[in-house]
Design goal:
homodimer; 221 residues; mainly alpha; Arc Repressor Mutant, subunit A; Tetracycline Repressor, domain 2; disordered N terminus
Chain lengths: 221, 221
């Protein structure tokens, strides 16, 4: 979420002249995100969040509306940040192979650099009320659909071999998403090096080979 | 966890003549698992669990020791169930390709059929106390290590192309694990059909091609 844009979980108007409030709101969001990651949404109390930013619990409510709206803000911000990059790549005039490579690189690097945000997005979203969760689920589906669409196009023009493109998209995302569980900053590889390996694993598998007889696409495709 | 074996979270001795108690304990475990999946560990109260099995909260403590030990039981049982199959495959006298294929099939099918158990294992384990979590993390590491070891052997004997085998193992597991998030029983594909597609994606990528010049393994391998 861009600075200055309205936030569901945040009270009051954020203006340029109101910088300390904005900084305070960011501080609260970051503290809540860290706590949700460590203790889970339900395991985190408003008192925990107030303590983390050095406020009285009562004063916390001057800055935010509710714990649930805080979670929604965190989730929306994470989703917006990761989606912007993918949407931009999707619009580029590139071959499906090149687009998929860039999408994997973007996705992997983002996750490695924003593990906490991704963790909360992926694991705590289910604690939102059904209505709020629905909007997030729609956004997540759009993200998956972009990957599926790139792969499907690659198959259609013969760059990729015929496969169930939806399962292929889930596979690519699962492979990359899993980084939020195992990646460590202190490990031997940089995010971009890992992205190159994952991209290689997927592209070598999907790429159609000239010496192979093309097979008809599965009916469901 | 096998029936009749001691359970950390369960009070009293479980014997063959004590069947109703055992059934009650299983019932409590299943109810707690469902609640942990839906509401999270911290979002589930002992009262919720008592209500789900039609007991008074006080009576619940006749059957279990604590909510945390219930979580540990659920996690241990899920891990034991999925590990037994993998350990058996790992001991088979098969080529690494065939072993990997079977391991992927086992892993994928298990997840598709035990989503709830896997969900709690993967997302709620972090709410165990550090000491209890450590034992679970060690078990999970062993599981990953088996996949890494099969892939590493395949590379060593030239069946698989040279790659970072640890990243390859995380990729395979991430790809398969992600099923606990997207798989639906009402979808068009059976677990074994999905397993075949995932196995195909991985094996086509990893398999060394005779027309390719072998490259030296990365130093870190």
């Amino acid at each position: 979420m861009k600075k200055g844009s309205p936030r569901t979980g945040v009270r009051g108007k954020v203006t340029r002249t109101n910088l300390p409030t904005e900084i305070r709101q960011d501080q609260i969001l970051l503290a809540a995100r860290k706590l949700f990651r460590e203790k889970g949404y339900h395991g985190t109390s408003m008192q925990d969040i107030a303590d983390a930013v050095g406020l009285q619990k009562g004063s916390l409510y001057l800055h935010i509306t509710s714990k649930e709206d805080l979670l929604l803000d965190i989730v929306n911000r994470a989703h917006q940040d990761i989606s912007e990059g993918l949407e931009a790549i999707y619009q580029l005039h590139l071959s499906p192979s090149e687009k998929l490579k860039q999408a994997i690189r973007h996705h992997t690097s983002f996750i490695a650099r924003n593990r906490e945000a991704l963790w909360v997005l992926l694991e705590e979203t289910r604690h939102l009320s059904p209505e709020k969760r629905k909007a997030v689920d729609t956004q997540l589906k759009r993200y998956t659909d972009i990957f599926a669409s790139i792969i499907e196009e690659g198959m259609r023009i013969g760059e990729f071999r015929p496969l169930d493109y939806k399962i292929a998209a889930f596979s690519v995302l699962g492979m990359c998403n899993w980084l939020y569980r195992w990646y460590s900053k202190s490990g031997p590889l940089k995010p971009e090096e890992i992205a190159d390996i994952l991209s290689d694993i997927i592209l070598v598998s999907l790429t159609a080979r000239p010496d192979e007889t093309p097979q008809p696409l599965d009916k469901r495709q």
